[in-house]
UniProtKB/TrEMBL annotation:
It comes from Sinisalibacter lacisalsi. Residues 162-491 form the Beta-lactamase-related domain. Pfam families: Beta-lactamase. InterPro entries: AmpC-like, Beta-lactam-related, Beta-lactam/transpept-like. SUPFAM superfamilies: beta-lactamase/transpeptidase-like (SSF56601). This is Beta-lactamase-related domain-containing protein.
Amino acid sequence: MSTWTDPQGRFSLVLPEGWLLDESDPLVALTSPEGDFALWFGISQETDAAEAVSQAWGAVGEAAPAPQAVSAAPARPGFDAATAFSYPPDGETVRKAIVETRDGRLHVTLIRGALAALDRRGAQINIAATGFRPADDDSTDLAGITPDPLDAADFAALEAYVADNLAGFDVPGAVVAVVQGGDVTMVQGFGVRAKGGIEPVTPDTRLMIGSVGKTMTTLMMARLVEDGRLDWDQPVRELLPEFAVADPALSETITVRNLVCGCSGVPRRDMEFLFNAADLDAEAVIGSLSGFEFFTGFGEAFQYSNQLVATGGWAAAAAAGADWGVLDAGYAEVLEERLWAPLDMTRSTLDFAQVLADGNFAAPHAPHGTGERRMLPVEAEQMLLPVAPAGAHWSTGADMARYLQALLAAGTGTDGIVSPASFATLTTPQVPVSATMSYGLGWFVEDWRGQRLIHHGGNTIGFTSDLAYLPEADAGIVILTNAGRANDFAKAVRHRFLERLFDLPEAHHAGALLARTEAERRGEELAAATPVDAATVQSATGRYHSDVLGEVELRSEGDRLIFDIGEMASEVRVDPVGPARWIIWSGPFFTSPLVFDPEARTLTFGEGAARYVFEAQR
């Protein structure tokens, strides 16, 4: 990445690698290497955001599209306010506009391009959008500042904040743990394990942690590296001879590091294990990689692949002695031996049967078209087991507090679970994600107001988690919830903790409320989705087959059309925004688009790079 400064000294941009800068027009343009995606930036003389956006679209040669929605958005540091303009789908083209205010000046960003390009270069688009900064940015700089210990008033404020916001964010239950100065200074449960129930979430209640489990996988790998059993730069094929991707040359050279760096260029392909979860194990998932192609070169753009990270965990299991055919069990064993047992994390597990037998676990709750989350059976989360090292872990607030203690000890150079050198390897940026954040080996590494903030979130079907810590400040927080897609809540709690830690004003909550308001608006929109008409239901019902995702069924239940993949069934309704298509109205694929072609007798699920076509079985 490099930085460009406006010759007039009004703003600066961060340029993603390989993108073309054009400053010849009224707006400065950044265009992707393929030319299929562009962002424009400039300062408007208008005082009205809508008029500023309309003029900006005209300046780039487009009639101003009618926005689908105009809403207040969280203001980024350096800006006073923000307004987002979203537009309905236009074939394969996506558009967005943002107006950010700084001392009365309107900073305009236009975004337009191919949906496939958004999948391919989403991180670079994020770098460009977040790298647009006002020249007189005076955001608070906390570099080099060591915070005072949190006191009773701080913890009371944090506890009240969590308790007060559970219902507002539709989160049934949560547990929060705080570590500072090597000590667990807070670990407390809030709310209930299941909607409508009375059993409380406690520090010992098991919840799924989703992709926070990736950090456990890479930390376990680091321990094996220290023991000489594994090397970050050894070819994967030395450990897993059956490993292959679509490119034969890359199959030979991809290293263990490449599997967990987020920098390989492999796009996210979650549907390929979710749709076939009941029939997949570690060896089958590794075999499926032979069809994986790379969108970009190594290190060019951040891409998130659960299958690659999972393969990193299985490669580590092989390095520790697990044979082909028992890699899943081998991973669970080495994770217990190298991480959970040494840290006394006795209630962390990958075993669903153990969780169900224990009783003290939280139920998952997933978004629904009615606008509120609904409880799912715990068994629904077993769809994640095919990529277990990437995020099928269960843990508790108490266990995660011990884990956070170990991370902070490693980061501060004291007696940690790994050496300071290994910790540095895990948290060294490998590929940029935004203008201020990169991905390491299983960790996001962010420059937050001059402090190094290391973190990772986790999402399953019905759980959301967040773990974040500042090594130089020797403090961190864990948030676990039994609500799917509750990132706004988790991040709001994280930022409230950071504000209390550094005695900052309660500024982030306003942005969290705006995000919640926008989610509620979208929820109201989805709640208006109508059932598929009876005639179409009759013509569409039947079984469909995809060479990649296998067989699914469209069936009717009364006047409802049901999309059934075997592992999970969800209702389908007409998309209120794009009536030419349907949306999944409930379950794990909530809001995913579905298009039925009665002439071709095909069913298209998803969009962009994650688009799959099913043909009717006659």
